Hints:
Elements: E1 6-10, H1 14-31, H2 36-39, E2 48-54, E3 59-66, H3 69-72, E4 81-89, H4 98-112, E5 117-123, H5 127-132, E6 136-144, E7 147-155
Parallel strand pairs: 4-5
Antiparallel strand pairs: 1-2, 2-3, 3-4, 5-7, 6-7
Amino acid sequence: MSTRAYAVRVAEDPADREACFAVRKEVFVGEQGVPEDIEYDAYDAGAVHVLAVRADGVPLGTGRLLYGEAAAAKTDGDLSVGSLGRLAVSKEARGLGVGAALVRAIEEAARARGLAAVDLHAQTHALGFYEGLGYAAYGPEFPDAGIAHRAMRRVL
């Protein structure tokens, strides 16, 4: 599969959202053992979800943006900062630039909503990936769903 064999878009309809949830289930629940009852949360309803799909329609990756009050708990109450989360790329699509394309799409959605920066909670093994996209880690390491994480931010 070539790096151009997929497209990234905001998930607008129920089928797109279901595709996002399917990728999250595959990666977080299936591969990483995150309990399904904490993978999906109340924030999903109001979040901006992005979806990467192969030319034949197979979903390859997803991520979401929380903003406004929904993001406040993750951004120390700063309403000018969005929260990127639930970034997942299917095993078959890793290394093709899908994750970076999803991050950039989430940043575009944040800019479109007038946000000044994007925060995220990165699994520690992914710190280098996010640093390469311009994110800087801050604060101590902390566990989330039993996996070590660090907070990161990129000013837009």
